TrEMBL record:
Keywords, alphabetical: 2Fe-2S, Iron, Iron-sulfur, Metal-binding
SUPFAM superfamilies: ISP domain (SSF50022)
Gene3D superfamilies xref list: Rieske [2Fe-2S] iron-sulphur domain (2.102.10.10)
Species per Swiss-Prot/TrEMBL record: Amycolatopsis thermophila
CDD domains associated with the record: Rieske
Signal sequence segment: none
Annotated protein name in UniProt: Nitrite reductase/ring-hydroxylating ferredoxin subunit
Length: 129
């Protein structure tokens, strides 16, 4: 006999209009599960609203562009600049940052937000739970 893992079920959690371009929407899916939805350049991302550091409400933190060091052709620093191609969410408890597009902490990839597959159809946003 072969046992297979239960298949995730897809649940409607928001309307498309709830998540503006460049914005976020946090929704309580169950008593024990809150999910942050983010829209960046038209694509949706869904993460559990629990920081892998110490459990803070990470999806309710500030949205900021990541900081990148610019280098010249000889790899000398030209200083730091915000990178509008790499938006981050900053956990309000201790400031850990995570990439919106991957859920990964940029400096410590072992810290990663729990992600969910997300779809959008007919004005509704669903996540696979
Ligand atoms: S709980 Fe999020 S940075 Fe500590």
């Amino acid at each position: 006999m072969t046992l297979s893992a239960p298949r995730p079920t897809s649940s409607v959690v928001a309307r498309s209009s709830d998540v503006a371009e460049g914005g976020r929407y946090v929704v309580a899916v169950r008593d024990d599960l809150h999910i942050g939805l983010f829209r960046f350049r038209g694509r949706l991302y869904a993460y559990e609203n629990t920081c892998p550091h110490q459990g803070g409400p990470v999806c309710q933190g500030r949205l900021v562009d990541g900081v990148r060091e610019r280098l010249d052709a000889h790899r000398h620093s030209l200083g730091l600049a915000f990178d509008e191609d790499d938006p981050h969410i900053v956990c309000p408890w201790h400031g850990f940052e995570y990439r919106i597009t991957t859920g990964e902490h940029p400096g410590a990839p072992r810290f990663r937000l729990r992600s969910f597959a997300v779809t959008e159809e007919n004005g509704e946003i669903s996540v696979a739970l």
